[in-house]
Design brief:
four-stranded antiparallel sheet; 1 helix; single chain; about 150 residues; alpha+beta; about 35% strand
């Protein structure tokens, strides 16, 4: 029968394995308090425009358009309203205290970018832009380009 020699490397690896498994079991048995809904600094709302939805068909009144979104969520559980205006799209997370947001284009074929501002009425105004013809074309406003907005 062959004897196992305990080298310093084997001893260190066994100790490391012991601590790694111990940390995992500690993490699995320790409960942490969930973050309060709508807490400062947390993601408070998110909406992803459905790329197959024609944003130009929106009205100029803020209203719920479930078909316009692939995904829409608000930490308050309120509805998400959307409308078009002369120079972009407005998104309102009803009853949500978020005052900051970021936006990103979702059309994989074109390099769209966007800007978002929080308006005094509580909604976020999104203006998208990008190349109209090809990736090297001039930058232009693209009011009806799909996007994702994340509010915090």
């Amino acid at each position: 029968m062959r004897r196992i020699r305990f080298s310093p490397a084997l001893s260190i690896s066994v100790v490391a394995l012991f601590f790694a498994l111990g940390g995992t079991s500690f993490a699995l048995t320790t409960k942490s308090a969930p973050q309060p809904r709508c807490a400062t600094g947390a993601v408070r709302a998110m909406a992803e425009i459905n790329p197959s939805f024609d944003l130009s068909s929106l009205t100029t009144n803020l209203q719920a358009w479930p078909a316009a979104f692939n995904y829409a969520w608000s930490c308050t559980g309120g509805k998400v309203y959307i409308r078009k205006n002369d120079n972009g799209i407005d998104v309102l997370f009803v009853g949500n205290p978020a005052s900051e947001a970021v936006v990103s284009g979702t059309d994989g074929g074109w390099p769209f970018a966007g800007s978002v501002t929080h308006e005094s009425g509580g909604w976020f105004h999104v203006t998208m832009g990008g190349s109209n013809a090809d990736a090297l074309g001039p930058w232009q406003i693209q009011n009806f380009a799909p996007f994702v907005i994340v509010a915090f």
